[in-house]
Design a protein that fits this description.
By secondary structure, the protein is α/β, with parallel strands linked by helices. The protein is built from 15 helices and 13 strands.
Amino acid sequence: MRIWFDILTPKQVMFFKPAIDYLKEQGHDILCTSRQYREAVELARMKNLQLKIIGRHGGAERYEKLRASTSRIFKLAYEIKKFEPSVAISFSSPECGRVAFGLGIKHLGFNDSPHATAVSKLTVPLLTQLFCPWVIPISAWRDSGISSSLITMYKALDPVAWLKRDPNTGLAELNTGSAVEKGRKNILIRLEELKASYIADRKLNSSLLMIDDLISNLSQTTNIIILCRYQDQFRQVEKRYRGKAKVLKNVVDGVSLISSVDVFIGAGGTMTTEAALLGKPTISISPFRFYVEKYLVRSGLARRSSNARELLLLVRMMLQSKVYATRQKKIAKHVLDNMEDPMLKLLSFIRNCA
């Protein structure tokens, strides 16, 4: 059976690789495509996942997104017509969705972000089957134009797909130079995906405004590491916090880095969920609320901060309290042990397609 995966982000590299490895072992012919997007391409190289690069990321502006997407659809159509897959699999890739629909290919799509309305509207109505975490209600997809009968839920958050197999995966690959310092407390901050349409279109404030006070107050006593997503974001942050924080330029294994620090602060979704499920004291400073984050907070896996003063107080508490750190490990282990592997749902559906 020929199967096409369209893999666009670092999360998708981690999420789909176990299934890809298994399907290859079973003798299936697999094609993995991606686009020019630094973090995804570099992480795939680290994980020995071969990608065929077609097209590029469109950036933050609507016109450039449209041009990049339409150009990529044109190029993908040619490649996929040659490959002739029986099924396409993506994490709601608009280009994959359009090509699969146009060529009459079944499209299995994962999505844990109904708040990303532009992507959902472009992909969800065309899916053969939508897979999503159980914490997202069916009603969240109502405006996306898909029947509830075409939605398969799994009792897991997406990072379980790689954490369930090996919680320490990638630890030997950590290549952060002197980013993590022994003998000092370490804080890791992951910035938001500013160029994603669900943030760029809303013109939300940068999380940098939230962490200014934190860095000013703790930089003398604590090692602060900032992980950016884009080259221009890296340059801006490096200039803003020069001498006060370490800004990582290279792509690193997220699990490895999270495991090496004392507190994680996330303005996005995936690494915040990773950190929480690993039992790391975790704070979400996402500029908006979403279903997965609400679950993390509700279940005690993470805390949420909405202003700079609250963030500083929470971080100080987490750095000082061994009881809190121990409690987070226990909660995370219990939650992770009781979650299922999302990839088993996918593999079962693929067998039915075959």
